[in-house]
Amino acid sequence: MLRELVIKNFAIIDASTLSFSEGLNVLSGETGAGKSIIVNAINLIQGKRTSGGIIRNDEEEATVEALFDISDNYMILDKMENLGVEREETLVIKRVVSNSGRNKVFINGGLATLSMLASIGDDLITVSGQHEHQLLLNTERHIDILDDFGGLISIRQGVETLFGRLLKLSRELADHTVTANRRLERESLLDFQYHEIERANLQVGEYEDLRNEKKILVNSEKLLQYSNHGYNAIYGAKGSVIECLEEVRKNMKEICSIDSSLNRLHDGIESSIIELEDIALVLRDYAQKTEFDPARFEAVELRLAELNKLKKKYGPTIEEILQYRDKIRRELEDISQGGHALTHLKDKICDLEREIMGLTRDLSEKRKTTAEKMKAGIERELRSIGMEGTVFEVDIRNAHVTDKSRLDGNIDVGDYKIGRKGIDDVEFLLSPNPGEPPRALSKVASGGELSRIVLAIKSILAREGGVETLIFDEVDAGIGGRTADVVGQKLKSASRFHQVICITHLPQIAKFADTHYSIRKRLKDGRTYTSVRRLDKEGRVDEITRMLAGVKITDTVREHAREMIEKS
């Protein structure tokens, strides 16, 4: 409940303090006196964005401060706790708007953000004025009003929770499907590469061995020639090295028999002869097995070509090609596991779709029942405020996949489009003239009728709980006489459930006030000031008299004003 509102340097208000009471609080004054400024100040307390020109001329900043009693408002208490604000039975909100652009928000004395304030603002106060009329013309808000009236918000929150989970899983499935398609392409490529490497039956060191073998095959004629020549020169031909060394060995043997000091040389020559004989025999054997094999040469060439092809594709060495093969095998195993994950995800989505469809159908049925009660309640309220014969309908349609009217962000489940609020599209229809079919509010309702429809909706919602403070601005547009009196009674009735603040031009409404403020505009030292004064009993009589008579005030009018207040 709003207890106190302090406004400083705001538009043409230099400083005003308003203390509101329980019940019906009325603000009245002549046109242009500044009544709308009060509403704009309250909008700041709700966390609404500021517009230019709200700071009083020659001032640096404007301040709006509000004191709320929230001792029984557990929703606000919980929200404050979630925002990190200490739980208290009173709530003080302060907005400071500066010409420098350094605007500030305070909640219970602590600095806060505008988003923090906005998260609790609409739960503290609801303002019904031209803005509310526009919201009523917005068909997307009709489902919210219906659910609020039927107490279906908790069920809808369950739908929204499931929808959020389903939307997340659906996006995951879409991502996984795209990834799976890419993985199929990737798997096909990797499978080809893996089997290509496997079929090659690679061996570490094979490439180097083949290159050496090719070199030998290419030079086989030269190897045969040189090995035969070496064998013959060392051992096989007449006058060979061995033959000459044998002659030297014989001579050395004779020398050593004479001079034993040369025995070492004789042993060296004999050792050399043995070693050269071994070399000659190796060269002979090598020459015997050396020949050019065209078939083997072709096979080596083909194998080297195959290995070079694999090296270009998969790695510069056999070892690296085999490492790449092992990497491919692991990736193919991961792709196989990914397919199992996709199947599991589809199963989860199917289970969630069944759950959300069950809950949305239940919500839809409850909405239809609620719509009948709402229709009866609003038509009853409209009759009581001068709109006899008016027909009010709540049109509920299930959204099907073939519908094109729904915005993006919905999910197709079976034959239905499911959104965060379920499978229903809701629209309020009105027929203010008997015999005419109900049509959209925007096509048939005048401004005055919209004001009364807003009041009717607020009246029936008031009994269902909700926001503690209701503000009605221009609810009296287009009405007067008996209808205005009935509207006043409705506001008074609503004030039994909520604190009601009403800005009005009509004495038929103002007479029901529990607290009455007069808003006046005056000129002082060449500047315009707006003052707000709480009226006592006689002050109320004066104000109602002014509202009845205008400029010409008589004793008869004054007595009529006093009688109106007493009877109300």
Description:
The chain is α+β, with helices and mostly antiparallel strands and 568 residues long. Among the domains are: 1-127 and 471-476 and 500-535, 3-Layer(aba) Sandwich (Rossmann fold), CATH 3.40.50; 187-330, no CATH class; 536-568, no CATH class. 57% of the residues lie in helices and 18% in strands. The protein has 18 helices and 17 strands. The protein has helices at residues 35-45, 74-82, 114-124, 130-137, 142-150, 153-200, 206-218, 220-236, 241-258, 263-289, 294-314, 318-384, 441-444, 447-462, 481-494, 507-510, 537-549, 555-567; strands at 2-10, 13-19, 24-28, 61-69, 90-98, 104-107, 110-112, 125-128, 391-398, 411-413, 416-418, 424-431, 439-440, 469-473, 499-503, 515-524, 527-534. The strands form 4 sheets. The chain has a 6-stranded antiparallel beta sheet with strand order 2-1-4-5-6-7, with helices on one face. It has a 6-stranded mixed beta sheet with strand order 8-14-15-3-16-17, with helices on both faces. A 3-stranded antiparallel beta sheet has the order 9-12-13. The radius of gyration is 50 Å and the shape is elongated. The mean pLDDT is 84.
Q: Which range best describes the helical content: under 10%, 10-25%, 25-40%, 40-55%, 55-70% or over 70%?
A: 55-70%
Radius of gyration over C-alpha positions, nearest whole angstrom? 50 Å
Shape: elongated
Mean pLDDT: 84
Percentage of residues in strands: 15-25%
Low-confidence stretches: none
Corresponding CATH architecture of the domain at 1-127 and 471-476 and 500-535: 3-Layer(aba) Sandwich
| Spatial ordering of strands, largest sheet | 2-1-4-5-6-7
> What is the number of beta strands?
17
Output the structural class. Answer: alpha+beta
CATH superfamily of the domain at 1-127 and 471-476 and 500-535: P-loop containing nucleotide triphosphate hydrolases
The number of helical segments is 18
CATH fold descriptor of the domain at 1-127 and 471-476 and 500-535: Rossmann fold
Q: Tell me about the biggest sheet?
A: 6 strands, antiparallel
CATH top level assignment of the domain at 1-127 and 471-476 and 500-535: Alpha Beta
Could you give the distance between the termini?
Answer: 24 Å
